[in-house]
Amino acid sequence: MKEQIKKIQQTNALAELEEIRIALLGKKGILTARFAELKTCNAEEKKTLAQELNTLKQEVEKNLAIQKEVLELKELESRLKAEKIDVSLFNTANTKGANHPVMLMLDRIVEYFLSMNFSLNMGPLVEDDFHNFEALNLPKYHPARDMQDTFYFNDGKLLRTHTSPVQIRTMQQQKPPIRMIAPGSVFRCDYDITHTPMFHQVEGLVVENGKDSISFANLKFILEDFLKFMFGDVKVRFRSSFFPFTEPSAEVDMSCIFCGGSGCRVCSHTGWLEVLGCGSVDVNVFNAVRYENVSGYAFGLGVERFAMLYYGVPDLRAFFESNLKVLEQFR
Ligand code: DAH
């Protein structure tokens, strides 16, 4: 049996160890067979033989257990060695990152308004009907609600369709004067060359105490100055329009930066590019937040649209496809 124990101690693999265990202690094992001898002994012999066999069995089992642990440890060690990753290995791929063009554009827009003493406000992406529509003078069943294809949740909440609800939240939290912009993502159920279900807007709101403190001229000045900061020496015009939350309302065009105003494909041969919506804050909006004896203006713009014009990107979807060949060009 000494030899068998030695064999156990010299095994190199768990499978080999199991073979030895079966050969000794299995149904047809050597030790098992010896236990069978007990049946043919008389009482006296039985006692000594049983003692001897049990000691042997214990010895074998002890050695099997020890060797099993040794081999398992060895196996773990070699597996860890094989799976080791050398984090100091040199990486030949070019891993230098870059800001996304939409964020670069947003940074520049924010830079202008901060320099003009506007503050930066944020609002939630999941909005309620009151802030996204009702308080912005868009009551239920108002036809202008159809302008925005809304994503609704089961509980009546919705993904904000524009950044204008931040106007309402700001006025509910602060007293005038207010001078703020609110950048952020907005969501509409829409997808083609010029629309994606998520895009970015910047909202602007200025409110002063006094019915005549803020006029349309203040709005014209800031937006003209802003567009010149962004695009250089462009011509700017205000075209009468409609938004439920402003009265009067206007859309702002600038002379086409691709053809200089003579007409091309980008401006549909009009010489003008539409870039902003704006107006004097509608009195119904002030009523919704219980503001009295105030005046103000508001505006809203799409950041992707600005980025398309600024960087000359023809397809809006290029901003959302994460194609490195495109994104690398903005490093
Ligand atoms: N909320 C409008 C939109 O999503 C943009 C807008 C237009 C915002 C005029 C304004 C505004 O504050 O005065 O289309």
UniProtKB/TrEMBL annotation:
Cofactor(s) needed for function: Mg(2+)
Q: Which residues form the Aminoacyl-transfer RNA synthetases class-II family profile domain?
A: 159-321
Reaction equations catalysed: tRNA(Phe) + L-phenylalanine + ATP = L-phenylalanyl-tRNA(Phe) + AMP + diphosphate + H(+)
Question: What does the UniProt keyword field contain?
Answer: Aminoacyl-tRNA synthetase, ATP-binding, Coiled coil, Cytoplasm, Ligase, Magnesium, Metal-binding, Nucleotide-binding, Protein biosynthesis
Tell me the GO molecular function terms: phenylalanine-tRNA ligase activity
Coiled-coil segments: 43-86
Top-rank taxon: Bacteria
Q: Where is the protein found, in the record's own terms? A: Cytoplasm
InterPro entries recorded? aa-tRNA-synth_II, aa-tRNA-synth_II/BPL/LPL, Phe-tRNA-synth_IIc_asu, Phe-tRNA_ligase_II_N, Phe_tRNA_ligase_alpha1_bac, Phenylalanyl-tRNA_Synthase, tRNA-bd_arm
Q: Which residues bind Mg(2+)?
A: 247
| Cofactor: how bound | Binds 2 magnesium ions per tetramer.
List the Pfam families hit by this protein, alphabetically.
Phe_tRNA-synt_N, tRNA-synt_2d
Q: What class of enzyme is it?
A: ligase
The yes or no answer to whether the keyword Metal-binding is present is: yes
Q: What is its main location?
A: cytoplasm
Q: Does the entry feature the keyword Protein biosynthesis, yes or no?
A: yes
| EC numbers for this chain | 6.1.1.20
Q: Which family does it belong to?
A: Belongs to the class-II aminoacyl-tRNA synthetase family. Phe-tRNA synthetase alpha subunit type 1 subfamily.
Assembly and oligomerization: Tetramer of two alpha and two beta subunits.
Return the protein name.
Answer: Phenylalanine--tRNA ligase alpha subunit
Which species does this protein come from?
Helicobacter ibis
